[in-house]
């Protein structure tokens, strides 16, 4: 087994993602999320995910479009991810939600047309660090079975409490098959 230092692991992710055309800022965002997964022991969403991102980026004929806000009010927004990797869309959605919540006291931001959003707790910890509570819900293709049901999308939810340090309870609508 090979052990990498954090700087070496970050450099490895940067080398892979730079070949796909990601900017230095985007590489830093993605690498931060992937390394956070590794440090939590969630290697399925860690360094190996960089290869999946590269494979998908190279296999997609149409290049990703810019992330954009397609509708908004003072307390809400809908974003189109432009088929960008979800770590980037999640960052934009979080930044917009935090700004709206600080300005108005509450915010709801939805995002679509994205993939690999990553760990919900990653974004909620950032919201908690900004002094906010949050809730995240996701959806996906019909690849898992809810308990006692047939195949459906997984829609886990997470929300931090107002206590310090943040407590991140998690629930999901799926269960592994028997």
Automatic annotation (TrEMBL):
<feature type="compositionally biased region" description="Low complexity">
    <location>
        <begin position="152"/>
        <end position="171"/>
    </location>
</feature>
<keyword id="KW-0560">Oxidoreductase</keyword>
<dbReference type="InterPro" id="IPR003767">
    <property type="entry name" value="Malate/L-lactate_DH-like"/>
</dbReference>
<feature type="region of interest" description="Disordered">
    <location>
        <begin position="143"/>
        <end position="178"/>
    </location>
</feature>
<dbReference type="InterPro" id="IPR043143">
    <property type="entry name" value="Mal/L-sulf/L-lact_DH-like_NADP"/>
</dbReference>
<comment type="similarity">
    <text>Belongs to the LDH2/MDH2 oxidoreductase family.</text>
</comment>
<dbReference type="Pfam" id="PF02615">
    <property type="entry name" value="Ldh_2"/>
</dbReference>
<dbReference type="InterPro" id="IPR036111">
    <property type="entry name" value="Mal/L-sulfo/L-lacto_DH-like_sf"/>
</dbReference>
<dbReference type="InterPro" id="IPR043144">
    <property type="entry name" value="Mal/L-sulf/L-lact_DH-like_ah"/>
</dbReference>
<protein>
    <submittedName>
        <fullName>Uncharacterized protein</fullName>
    </submittedName>
</protein>
